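Marked as duplicate of an earlier ticket. Keeping the data here for the record.
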Amino acid sequence: MQKYRLKTSSSRIRLIIVLLLAGAGLTLYFIFGGLFRFTFLVIYLLPHIYLYGHLKRVFTGGRSRVIFTGVFLLIILLFPVSMLLDEDAGSSFVKYMQLGGYYYLPVLLYGLLFYGLFDLFRIINYLTGIFPRPAINRRRVRSVVFTGILILTAIIVAVGIHRFNHTRVHTYQIKVPQRSGKLDHLTIAMAADLHLSQITRTGFVEQFVEKINAQDPDLVLLVGDIVESGGDVSGKQSFSNHLKQLQSKYGVFAVEGNHEHYGRRTGFNFFEESGIQLLRDTSVVVDKGVALVGRRDRHERDRASLEQLLKQAPDSLPRIVMDHQPYHLHQAARQDMHVQFSGHTHHGQLWPLNHITEAIYEISWGHEKIRDTHFFVTCGAQGWGPPVKTSSRSEVMLVEVEFVAD
């Protein structure tokens, strides 16, 4: 008995030490990593505690439980560790580790949702007594549930990978007052949220350029989050070379997004290297027919107001605005402008996260006319993080603008 008590006491001491070390580690992470990273880490860990409670019951005790726990811990660490690695190293190992971490995120999301449904069923069964409770808790039943969830998640992720990697063109027709402009018609190809980085396939950029050039646009607009600025942009030279092949009558224009502001802010050089004219709180006149206004990202607190920017653009021409994040659209519609292009939302990217973006933004995706202004919000030519889309699909918006007499 004394020996058993000593053994139990020793186990508790080891557990306390582990918890203290974990707490100290999280505190240091909070101090040096910032509030966002600390919050993300906590949010990331909590679902795993819930899932582990389910999954450990699928495996019997002993060696199989130990192996499962070890593998589960490695999977948990995959994403946060891969985010801490320096992608400038150009290592294939780093690249594939980051890809593995990203692909795991939708697996985590849908595993969590399906097990949540399973627990909901258990609660309903507890209240109604349709099935014997001991039967539902048997290891065989839990193994079947685990296998079913794994298969369903794999199917959903596979479909999402296809939707992410196959860009579609969505076409819209709108009418805009001509004012004193000289254009009768303008074909605009608009895209955003390419998030070019180390893990982006060169084949995607080739496909993207070919898709836009096939539309024979008059104007190409890239509305932010084109390149991840955290890494060395000089390592993305092949992307620049491909984007230089974009063809349009009046040129390629872009505005910055929030991701061009992360890391070392080297993303702005990328636009010049790619032959793209970056508009930062400035405007240009396109062939005496339309005034194009480009806003800095709302991360920049000293960016000019929309009212100030529109004063720079001649009011004798129809006005088109590019603003990466689609906030305060009803306020913007009160200004003397005719079209606004935005991105940023990804339309949630992964279902059911689109319901969150729909609650946050006045337009999460698509086209809507508010007062006299046409607003377009794209769900992105690709996206950030997991190369998977289940609430949207990669797209280019093609907008046929007809200028009509006032």
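See parent ticket for discussion. The longest strand covers residues 168-177.
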